[in-house]
Amino acid sequence: MKRKGLKVTKVVMNAEEMEKTLNRMVHEIIERVGAKPHVAIVGIRTRGVHIAERILDKIERAEKVKVASGTIDIALYRDDFFKGLASPEVGPSNLNFDVDGANIVLVDDVLYTGRTVRAAIDALMDYGRPASIMYAALVDRGHRELPIQPDFIGKTVQTTRDEAVAVLLKEVDDEDKVVVGER
Fold first, then answer.
1. Residues 90 and 75: beta-carbon distance below 8 Å
2. What pLDDT, in 10s, does the model give residues 13-31?
């Protein structure tokens, strides 16, 4: 989602709230997958990667274990790829673990229609057959077009289809904040 040209109408999470939300999500993830073997945290490019790295770091520090991780690029798996859109910006997928039999937590910034996570699941399946795939979204803004629900939700935000949700991250934007705005 392009952040340029977004007229911010509301801040739904500041840096402190985002940190608390990520801490809560980490504890929920540990509760659900802590006893499972071969767990991996995978960020969906682009902003999901930064959120996944934060979650991974918090899990490893809290549990004093090394957790497998990776990134997945969905550009070529999008269902609108062949609809005459501008050329997608394809980035690397990097999975430093064997997907076969893994219990994977996919991480993204915003859940909207469900099409991004569907594409991420398709991309993962090209690498192997995981034992399970769970989904963590920092923000769920509704308006689903596919029957997809997150297993771990940071915050649910009511929006209209005309609004946009932007997750700003220190790693990219020099600040942590979630905003709603008009395009």
1. yes
2. 999 999 999 999 999 999 9
Round to whole Å and give the CA distance between 141 and 157. Answer: 5
Q: Residue 98 in contact with residue 5, Cβ under 8 Å?
A: no
Q: How many residues does the chain have?
A: 183
3-state secondary structure of 37: coil
Spell out where 58-121 has E strands. Answer: 68-72, 94-95, 103-111
- Name the H helices within the chain: 15-33, 47-63, 115-125, 170-173
Q: Which domains does the chain have, with CATH numbers?
A: 13-81+92-159 (3.40.50.2020)
CA 24 vs CA 14, 30, 48, 89: distances in Å? 15, 10, 17, 32
The residue assigned the tokens 């064997």 is 98
Cα 13 to Cα 69, 143, 169: the distances in Å are 26, 20, 12
Residue type, 1: M
pLDDT of residue 78: 74
Q: Residue by residue, what is the 3-state secondary structure of 112-155?
A: CCCHHHHHHHHHHHCCCCCCEEEEEEEEECCCCCCCCCCCEEEE
**Is 37:103 a contact under the CB 8 Å cutoff?**
yes
